[in-house]
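Dear H.,

Thanks for agreeing to be a second pair of eyes. The structure we're designing against is below in token form, covering all 549 positions.
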């Protein structure tokens, strides 16, 4: 039977609960315990697929094509598991399925209420993750902060589930923040105490408290929290802000949380193995030559909008012994600037990010043109691949009237067109071509050298595609189709001949990159970028600002 770890948040949001949850998973996985994770999001959207990234950060896509919260990306990367659509539950999903059943007549005669109908549905979803995954431990993270009105049904559901599976088979972990008051030089515990009091008032007693703070937490503070919150002192764990999120599992391990959880849950745990992880963190920290990669997108003010891309670049750079600096470049700013080099001139490689709609499109085109003409290594991701295709086609067909049908329905040359099976689609939510599909790699191409295998599976999220009627014309002008669907109907990867590295993928390689296994296309981009490094630029840089976890 699966054991459960329920994680709640206190004091404020945005303290890095997702990274903490993923790191709890890593600490258990390091002991040979299999893990599944589920994020319980209180908002009413069915999924974040239709949300603006400024509202919610990036939309992460699973193998089975669910559009999910970005925390699933943290879980997949840090725990090193592939999750499914069951791992992101929202109030929107819960309510729509309960209401659909009510309309069908399933509850005939009954009054449908938050308790028990909504809470039962939540419990069923969490149990389903256990049943589907067969994992030893399911970690369930409740989104939002204790005290929010909207996450109350989730808290009630985990309280009930805890009772149902038995006290010995589940633990509650509360993640809080210890604010620092500069004037008195103190870390304050009161918000944590109040948050735990709130949690206890709804029947949840934490077994462990993870305290985020910007500095080290003295033992006296931990002991005070333990006393007032009725938690063992060893179960109050300090999580000070660190220079890399990949340090967090090691911090948890050093605190003894892994042994404590294994003991509390009666798990058969192997001695923990951390060799690869310690090696990873040591490599991240080692002084290295630097490398600059520009990411061109329209949501660059919030780098969480491109979280998986940033991580994928970092994984590749670390493995190639580079300290990568990401220059976030606004696609709109490129539309109006006179000197592209002002924004892109320092970059050793350029990535054009995925996206939807017209805003910033021509700026992305200018970035692709710059990369093509200047020979700068370039990776186009999804819309970025479509941008690369439009830009190259404008040049190859000697026409400005070349476009993606998404941006201009009446263009003379729709080199990117709506996929046939998208023509009848009316609803926007969950209707794109989503999830993992096979892609056959053309031998003798850059893609083939990067992957080293003939067939790969990659995750998708798009409605538009390369228009096959232009294949030959663009190929004869120097574009290679280096990856296709096995039936050859869909172009998945394009690249340019005679350019050091100009590659575009219709899929999103960033979702599959793992810290200990960087994705081949990102590795290839970084390798090509390193090859362009000029003398004198190879001095080690100090580590960047601490990354909040
Ligand atoms: N807007 C493009 C499409 O729907 C690209 C989508 C994306 O970049 N994820 O095909």
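And this is the sequence the design step returned. I haven't edited it by hand at all.
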């Amino acid at each position: 039977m699966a054991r459960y770890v329920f994680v709640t948040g206190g004091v404020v949001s945005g303290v890095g609960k997702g990274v903490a949850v993923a790191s709890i998973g890593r600490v258990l996985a390091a002991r040979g315990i299999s893990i599944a994770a589920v994020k319980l999001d209180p908002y009413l959207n069915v999924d974040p697929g239709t949300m603006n990234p400024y509202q919610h950060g990036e939309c992460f896509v699973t193998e089975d094509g669910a559009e999910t919260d970005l925390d699933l990306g943290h879980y997949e990367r840090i725990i090193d598991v592939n999750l499914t659509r069951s791992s992101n539950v929202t109030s929107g999903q819960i309510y729509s399925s309960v209401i659909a059943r009510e309309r069908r007549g399933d509850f005939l005669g009954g009054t449908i209420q938050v308790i028990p109908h909504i809470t039962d549905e939540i419990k069923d979803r969490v149990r389903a993750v256990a049943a589907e995954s067969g994992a030893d431990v399911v970690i369930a993270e409740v989104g939002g902060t204790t005290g929010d009105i909207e996450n109350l049904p989730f808290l009630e559901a985990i309280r009930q589930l805890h009772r149902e599976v038995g006290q010995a088979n589940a633990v509650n972990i509360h993640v809080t923040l210890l604010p620092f008051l500069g004037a008195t030089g103190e870390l304050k515990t009161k918000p944590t105490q109040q948050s735990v009091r709130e949690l206890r008032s709804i029947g949840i007693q934490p077994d462990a408290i993870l305290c985020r703070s910007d500095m080290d937490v003295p033992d006296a503070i931990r002991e005070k929290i333990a006393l007032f919150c009725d938690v063992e002192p060893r179960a109050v764990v300090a999580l000070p802000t660190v220079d890399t999120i990949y340090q967090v599992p090691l911090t948890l391990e050093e605190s003894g949380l892994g042994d404590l959880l294994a003991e509390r849950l009666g798990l058969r745990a192997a001695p923990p193995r951390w060799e690869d992880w310690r090696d990873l963190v040591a490599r991240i920290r080692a002084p290295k030559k630097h490398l600059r990669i520009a990411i061109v997108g329209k949501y660059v003010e919030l780098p969480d909008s491109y979280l998986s891309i940033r991580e994928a670049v970092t994984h590749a750079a670390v493995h190639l012994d580079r300290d990568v600096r990401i220059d976030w470049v606004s696609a709109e700013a490129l539309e109006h600037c006179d000197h592209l080099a002002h924004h892109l001139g320092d970059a050793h490689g350029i990535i054009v990010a995925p996206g939807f709609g017209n805003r910033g499109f021509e700026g992305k085109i200018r970035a692709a043109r710059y990369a093509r003409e200047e020979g700068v290594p370039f990776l186009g991701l999804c819309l970025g691949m479509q941008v690369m295709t439009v830009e190259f086609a404008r040049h190859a067909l000697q026409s400005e009237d070349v476009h993606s049908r998404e941006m201009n329905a009446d263009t003379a040359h729709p080199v990117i067109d709506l996929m046939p099976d998208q023509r009848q689609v009316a609803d926007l939510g969950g209707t794109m071509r989503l999830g993992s599909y096979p892609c056959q790699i053309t031998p003798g191409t850059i893609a083939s050298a990067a992957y080293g295998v003939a067939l790969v599976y990659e995750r998708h999220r798009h409605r538009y595609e390369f228009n096959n009627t232009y294949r030959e014309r663009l190929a004869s002008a120097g574009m290679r189709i280096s990856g296709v669907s096995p039936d050859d109907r869909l172009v998945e990867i394009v690249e340019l001949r005679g350019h050091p590295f100009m590659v575009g993928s219709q899929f999103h390689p960033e979702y599959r990159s793992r810290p200990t296994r960087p994705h081949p296309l990102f590795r290839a981009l970084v390798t090509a970028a390193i090859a362009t490094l000029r003398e004198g630029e190879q001095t080690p840089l100090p580590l960047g600002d601490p990354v909040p976890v």
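Two observations from my side: The chain is about 35% helix and 20% strand. Confidence is low (pLDDT under 50) at residues 539-549.

Warmly,
E.
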